[in-house]
């Protein structure tokens, strides 16, 4: 037996040597390098990658329950081990493609000599390739080649390619078992309808696995290798049956199966699924989870896993997405702003508080995610690209005042009349700024009532005591991290929004003129609900590689950014927005809201955007409504909202109604949790 194998390998090597000699005779006279030397160099380079045998594989992105929401791939493939491939599948491919597979040494001497004689006219016209050689060719085509030119070279009918394949095949046959070579071949081969490899094809055609393939199923797949289009079982079933039965007959002739087994398999129906399409790849196929999927990809890229690695690496990405919560958020944003409404976008994000993580549970927009007309792939829920969140930023001024001891939550603030001119702050031209209110207010309000009723003049006056830099720092600490990374003039390398606000003493900062995202604002609320513990908002529960090994993702650690007593006191102080004179009281009533909530509305000047931020002890979230057109205009509240000369959009209208509807449905059935009690240390400050 050993002598027979050695003789076969010797014959194979002899054929290779003959082919190399013949090829060298074909080189033009005076050539600077022989074909043989070029082949040797490419063989040395190629064997390194072939030894590893790592193939492009599909990455699966799932929700928190493990249900797939997206597939990321260049080639839809699921590589499996030899032990995970049905024995009849191995037998079928050997029978039809390489009957001497187990006896040759990587190159079939008889087949190669026959091909050499037939092709001696110069240009190769017939192949004598073994499965091992085909594996080498397919590896060049589907793994190594990155350009059209390289892909054409990988299948070009030339002696150069054939000889290189032969050399590599012989080397692989020495180093790998036959079973490993067979598995690698079956994992790489194309089997039609965008399915690469036997596992993907088994799922596509039969909704099964490579390990569970039956004899007729295996024979069908083996027959597809020669021409997936010609023997397409979905579009050309008669041709597919004929080809399948030929494979079955070859298996019978070679003793792989018995006559009765062959007869039964040949009589079996094709049994393929009707749709015959692999799952669409990318986030465009994720439906309502498309925005979340895009956010996941961006998050992973920032963590060091590139888009190319995701589409070729075969990862399993288990996210924090709560699909039920997503459905409620999507229903809420669409209910308030129909997806077809021109120039009005409605986005919302939900984050869970915690002291060791802030998982992102859902994000959605009324705009349908996609690349078709009327759809968008712009990452609206997590990108800071709107006109701002308005008076939501007064949270940061209040927090800075508590931290500095300037005021407590019960402190009584002066509320200057509309038209107040600050004695401290100036605009960029050095002129005094005039601050207006949207309505009349009492001359004095407690800080808690001021948060609920939101007079602009009271907070600009409070800012005169805290200073702008402290408020900007507070916003960053609590979660508006884009302030430090977004150039104020939009040009990379320019001073950031935070830098400009500090250096120019921009009193308008407390009025929320800086662009932000619903993700950042939701995380601000989560930080307060976590007793001042900031964690980076994360959409990832776990990532494992194709072997199932966990992949570590570097990210900032959670940290205490605010005294727990201040955070609790702020939660308490923000608890009046949904009742009494609070700016979201009408919205809360319209949605049947009855739970304690710490909330804050905001509206930008000219009503081009508005926001609502809220937190319960269980969940935090933010909704932003804004004009998403290139030339933003004021927005009027309506069914649906619309562009108008003088806006009537406020944070307490569309954004608050969106938030209360979504959160009410998500929390339905959960017990209502109370807001924390205020810390006595922060009830009063220097302002009595």
What key phrases describe this protein's structure?
688 residues; alpha+beta; Penicillin binding protein transpeptidase fold; Beta-lactamase; 6-stranded mixed beta sheet; 24 helices; disordered N terminus
Helical residue percent band: 40-55%
Tally of DSSP helical segments: 24
- Structural class of the secondary structure composition? alpha+beta
**How many domain modules?**
2
How many whole angstroms does the radius of gyration measure? 34 Å
How many strands? 20
CATH class of the largest domain: Alpha Beta
Average pLDDT taken over every residue: 90
- Cross-sheet strand order for the largest sheet: 13-7-6-18-17-16
The name of the CATH topology of the largest domain is Beta-lactamase
CATH architecture label of the largest domain: 3-Layer(aba) Sandwich
Strand content: 5-15%
- CATH homologous superfamily identity of the largest domain: DD-peptidase/beta-lactamase superfamily
Largest beta-sheet characterization: 6 strands, mixed
Poorly predicted runs are 1-14, 17-45, 122-127
What overall geometry do the principal axes of the alpha carbons give? elongated
Query: What distance separates the N and C termini?
Result: 100 Å
Protein name: Penicillin-binding protein
GO biological process, one term: cell wall organization
Organism: Pseudonocardia bannensis
Family: In the C-terminal section; belongs to the transpeptidase family. In the N-terminal section; belongs to the glycosyltransferase 51 family.
